[in-house]
Amino acid sequence: MPASETSITQNEGASELVAVLIAITRFSARVLTVLDGQSLPFGALSPVHRSLQSGVRQWVKTQTRQPMGYVEQLYTFVDTTRTRLSGHPVLYVSYLGLVKEIDESQLEAHASWQDWYFYFPWEDHRQGLVPWVTQTLLPQLQDWISQESDPMARINRQRRVDMCWGLNGFDWVEEHVLLRYELMYEAGLIPEAPNCRDIGLGHAEIGFPMQRDHRRVLATAMSRLRAKIKYRPVISELMPAEFTLFQLQKSIEGLAGVELHKQNFRRLMQHQDLVEETGKMTAQDRGRPARLYRFKDHVLLENILAGSKLPQIK
How, if at all, do strands 28-34 and 15-25 pair? Predict the structure, then answer.
């Protein structure tokens, strides 16, 4: 076992640091994982810095060799499974980092990048609800609703399903990632759930499971980031210095998991005064060259998308 992997395993304790590092690569939302994709980077925060964020940056670079840019504290979790087994609370202090993905040959041997829809395939809503959700998952959730004997609790379950999945008058809300995961966990449709039941679905449908409750941590990060791109210019941390509007739109679609209306998106970018032309054009073998843009210097001080809904295609 590599020394870095050994340190990760040995650093398990009553309180741990968990890092969710997100990148956009070829319009795909990606997450940095360890231990064959089964965990997020985790372990004791050492050495201790006067600034926790500085400590997190140094810790992540030491553990994975991945440099960090933007970082913020995400949440503090209790791993209920390990707490139940050990009899002591196991706490995660989690951080969300936005980075530019480096080649895996430069990472520590135990670290690898994964598409985040590998863990949450139902969250890729760019083509609408995937067929297995309608054909298999929703009937299973209806069975879970009908198993509740209390009428009011049964109504509440139905409302949660409708709200999470955009049914019966509710819209699909892309930032409800954690709510959907928690609902499926409670219904025993997630492999990590203690009451998990086999409904004949594989990883392609129900997602790749993670150890140490880390899929819940990732769901929280996805919810945070999907909400944040609507009112803060955090997308600038994930884009190259120069880009086309097509590349910007497709990158946001990769994060949000919804398809955006091209013309409305471009008008919104112009209205919000977030980007400016560089005066350069892309070099292309085929098709018309496209204008290159960059984020304006003041963009980090402004809201992105003005807190409005993304201009989705209906």
Answer: antiparallel
Distance of CA 158 to the CA centre of its chain: 26
% of the chain at pLDDT higher than 90: 51
Alpha-carbon gap, residue 260 to 134, rounded angstroms: 23
Model confidence over 166-179: pLDDT tens digits? Answer: 999 999 999 999 99
How many Å apart are CA 235 and CA 295, to the nearest integer?
A: 10
- Beta-carbon contacts of 128 under 8 Å, excluding residues fewer than 6 positions away, are none
The tokens describing 103, both together, are 């080649």
Residue type, 112: S
Taking only the tens place, the pLDDT of each residue in 255-306 is: 999 999 999 998 888 888 889 999 999 876 677 889 999 998 876 554 444 4
Confidence of residue 37 (pLDDT cuts 50, 70, 90): very high
Q: Distance between CA 267 and CA 152 in Å, rounded?
A: 45
Q: At what angle do helices 177-186 and 151-165 cross, to 10 degrees?
A: 140
CA-closest candidate to residue 272, choices 228, 307, 224: 307
Would you tell me how many other CB atoms lie within 10 Å of the CB of residue 229?
Answer: 21
pTM over 0.90: no
Our separate counts of H helices and E strands in the chain read 11, 8
Q: Report the C-alpha gap between 242 and 29 in whole angstroms.
A: 19
Question: What is d(CA 30, CA 288) in angstroms, rounded to the nearest whole number?
Answer: 29
Q: Tens digit of pLDDT for each residue in 122-140?
A: 999 998 888 889 999 999 9
Query: In the chain, which residue ranges form alpha helices assigned H by DSSP?
Result: 3-10, 52-64, 80-86, 131-132, 138-146, 151-165, 177-186, 203-206, 214-228, 245-256, 262-272
Distance CA 275, CA 241 (A): 11
